[in-house]
Amino acid sequence: MPHAAAATPQLLRRVNAQAVLRHLRGADAATGTELMALTGLTRASVIAVCEDLIGRGWIVELDQPRADPANPRKGRPARRFAFNREAGFVLGLDIGAATTTAAVADLRGTVVGRSSESFRAADIPAQERVGVIDLVCRQALEAAGKDPRNVLAVGAGIAAPVDRDGNVLVTQRFWSLFDVGLRSVLKELHGWTVLLENDANLAALGERWRGSGAGVDDLVVLLAGERLGAGVMESGRLLHGRGGAAGEMGYLDMVEGVGSSDGIAALARQWSAAGGGPSAGGPASAPRVFEDAAAGDAAALAILDRMSERMARVIASIASLINPEQVVIGGAVAESAGALLPGITARLPRFTATPPRVTVSPLGDKIVTVGAIRHALDFVEDNALELELAG
Amino acid sequence: MPHAAAATPQLLRRVNAQAVLRHLRGADAATGTELMALTGLTRASVIAVCEDLIGRGWIVELDQPRADPANPRKGRPARRFAFNREAGFVLGLDIGAATTTAAVADLRGTVVGRSSESFRAADIPAQERVGVIDLVCRQALEAAGKDPRNVLAVGAGIAAPVDRDGNVLVTQRFWSLFDVGLRSVLKELHGWTVLLENDANLAALGERWRGSGAGVDDLVVLLAGERLGAGVMESGRLLHGRGGAAGEMGYLDMVEGVGSSDGIAALARQWSAAGGGPSAGGPASAPRVFEDAAAGDAAALAILDRMSERMARVIASIASLINPEQVVIGGAVAESAGALLPGITARLPRFTATPPRVTVSPLGDKIVTVGAIRHALDFVEDNALELELAG
DNA sequence: GATAATTTAGATACAAGCTAAATATATTGC
DNA sequence: GCAATATATTTAGCTTGTATCTAAATTATC
User: Fold this and answer.
1) Bridge partners for B220 per DSSP
2) Cβ-defined contact of B240 to A230 (cutoff 8 Å)
3) Maximum CA pair distance of chain B?
4) Which residue has the higher pLDDT, B18 or B332?
5) Model pLDDT for residues A37-57, shown as the tens digit of each residue
6) Mean pLDDT of chain A
7) How many CB atoms lie within 10 A of CB A1?
């Protein structure tokens, strides 16, 4: 097998075009001279690259701005090039056990449409599940006023291990049932490329992009709710492990029960069963615990204390194995989890020599869709010059 | 800053030369036609690349082999090119607390010289330490009959966290003292490029190269002795984390004391203190425990059982966070640790949904030097076209 | 309002590296 | 010795780049 494809002269154009495109994605606009300085290419090459990218639809040439007396520009006016953020769109999906949400975003990641639907029941057949997902996608596109043919990639997060090739680990769960469908069905119906990923991994991508881990290369995001999953980024790359189960801490019950496939909600139920709290008798839920603790309820405070201890132990074991710079707590409980931070931070040095910074996600329930959009954009950016844009 | 250097036509030659070189490193020899098939280049380009590499000293052209009547070759005889494994050499260092070992290897990794020295005492000044290390390097080169000027890189393993840039984490230990010296001193004395790494990380490189994890991309190596450290490879890459402390499990004592900076030897001492075993009264040591267990001693067997349990828990927590395909046990106790494998393997499914294969290292006390050689070779291979070979 | 200075655009010449096709060379087999 | 075969070498041409020169469009100055 040709281990490395031959490097033909066309490779140069691809490399240089990618460099120009990368810069234009981050900037409002750029002149030829700016691009020369940035890439080190000569003007002739820069112009050739830009004409090329205009022809492919990825960038546009802006009209000359009228003269600005406040900031007069000497010399011949420069041609100005800008990234075409509407060259296409991506979909970000959060496929939960009960609900699916879809978000449409342009190529700069600005969300322009959104839709959400709940499944009729937990045990509906795979076909119906895929049908609902497809519906949510079409609704989101309609809300955005975009044509399905302009979708360049679909990022999709599910609560199950997914390996590097996008295959679902089938050792457990019913997920395998409808996964196999999703990729081929959406490919067949719309021609879309679906990029399946674990939801905690997408949360990590989202948090690094637009959350509290912005720009952090060694980042772990804990997606805590009924289930405890971690998305791990090391040196800016997502960790998957052999079967995609990296960060799947469901079994990690050795650590005094933390993350024994229950998490915070289970603690709340224990507490509720014990009859504690001002709002005792109502349904046990994580938010209620935080509420009651804020009201000064002793039992609720004790639970928060115990949770801090458990969280600190979990984070410490992550710190020992991965040594992240920062750990972000996200998911259903994130809003209220701020109350846990002091307790966690104070305990960490007892359990690890390299305690990470611990923060709470600001992304709320959008954490997975934001990450899914980022995942899709990463694919589009990596493959821009191979993708054909629809007129 | 020029985020990406401009891609000039010379880049093509570099890429293609690297591809040819990569193949020749793995093969005995290759003809132009073979290289054409492999790279997809035309004959003219392949020959040009080879002439180039010959000029730089990386490959040689072989003489025509005399005709072999048993295997007659039609047509004009092909020119045959081969990797020049003696174009340079690398050093692999294992810098321990008490002893330093150096191995000299050619560019295919065959060890051609070796040397070892113990430090006079544990608390000698940094300068003396570096002096001993330099001595060991020179002795190893002399044993191999090689000139120091032909050393292209030095891989060095130490028992401390080292980040991606080769800097030692200075939060603890005396290591910081003599690290700072090593790189600059060897650079100054011999012009060598020293690549510092954590010893467990190098063990992982070594095990994947020439140990029981050959070819496994998601691999963890436990370096167990007085201290418990893990070298983690995910998708073929070493994990470092923010400060290089990934895999530093010294603090991971939450898991029922496993790896609480003591490991197996501590267990042996506990056992010895209790007066157990046929050889009770002698110095407590890990090998003795295995010896006595093999002799049927009940107390020793109980210790092995407890060790299996602890090891299983440690490996399970690694499996939950990293999901490796395989975990290799290496270090001082590796020889005898085979006895633990059945106990560990049997317990794993209780603690993790994704149990890895568990094996014992066959590399013995060479595990770190082998990895250090691989680390140095990786550097040389990545930078071959930038390195200047000494005549 | 003409002219100079400045900045960018565009054109021309040429170099590096690759492909493709034609021609030359060395070996085996009859 | 001659055909067949596989490889080597040469020549022309393509793509992409650099370097350099000239042209164009704007501002500043007299």
Assistant:
1) B232, B327
2) no
3) 79
4) B18
5) 999 999 999 999 999 999 999
6) 86
7) 4
- Distance (Å, whole) CA B60 – CA B81: 6
Helix (H) or strand (E) holding B363: none
Picking from B9, B16, B245, the nearest residue to A12 by CB comes out as B9
- Rounded distance between C-alpha atoms, residue B89 and residue B26, angstroms: 17
Q: Which residues of A139-153 are buried (b: 16+ CB within 10 A; e: fewer)?
A: bbbeebebebebbbb
Give A44's DSSP letter. H
By C-alpha distance, the chain B residue nearest A12 is B7
Pairs across A and B, CB distance < 8 A: 207
Backbone φ, ψ for residue A265 (5° rounding): -60, -35
Q: Tell me phi and psi for residue B377, to 5 degrees.
A: -65, -40
Q: Is B150 on the interface with A (CB under 8 A)?
A: no
**Interface check A164 vs B, CB under 8 A:** yes
Residue range B5-59, pLDDT digits in tens: 778 999 999 999 999 999 999 999 999 999 999 999 999 999 999 999 999 999 9
pLDDT (tens digit per residue) in B118-177: 999 888 888 899 999 999 999 999 999 999 999 999 999 998 899 999 988 876 655 555
Q: Do A18 and A381 contact (CB within 8 A), yes or no?
A: no
Give tens-digit pLDDT for A126-173. Answer: 889 999 999 999 999 999 999 999 999 999 999 889 999 998 887 665
The residue type found at A183 is R
Mode of pairing for the β-strands spanning A357-360 and A326-330 = parallel
Q: CA–CA separation, A168 vs A160, rounded Å?
A: 7
Structure tokens belonging to residue B159: 């028992």
What pLDDT, on the 0 to 100 scale, is given for residue A249? 82
Contacts with B246 from chain A: Cβ below 8 Å: 234, 321-323
B11–chain A Cβ distance below 8 A for any pair: yes
Rounded CA–C1' distance between A67 and D23, in angstroms = 22
* Placement of tokens 């900031």 in the chain: A71
CA dihedral A137, A143, A144, A150 (to 10 degrees): 40
Q: Which nucleotides in chain D have some atom under 7 angstroms from a protein Cβ?
A: 4-12, 14-20, 23-28
Q: Which residues of chain B neighbour A8 with C-beta distances below 8 Å?
A: 12
Cα A197-A171-B343 angle, rounded to 5 deg: 120
Q: Which residue of A has its CA nearest to B313?
A: A254
Distance between the alpha carbon (CA) of A44 and the C1' atom of C10, Å: 9
Contact B4/A12, CB-based, under 8 Å?
Answer: no
Local confidence band at A177 (pLDDT 50, 70, 90 cut-offs): low
CA of B320 to C1' of D1 (A): 76
Written as six digits, the tokens of A320 are: 């020992």
pTM (predicted TM-score): 0.91
Closest CA to A340 of A313, A306, A304: A304
Protein residue at shortest CA distance from C1' of D11: B44
In this complex, is the C-beta atom of B317 within 8 Å of any C-beta atom belonging to chain A? yes
Q: Is the CB of A24 under 7 A from strand D?
A: no
A242: nearest CB among B245, B321, B323: B323
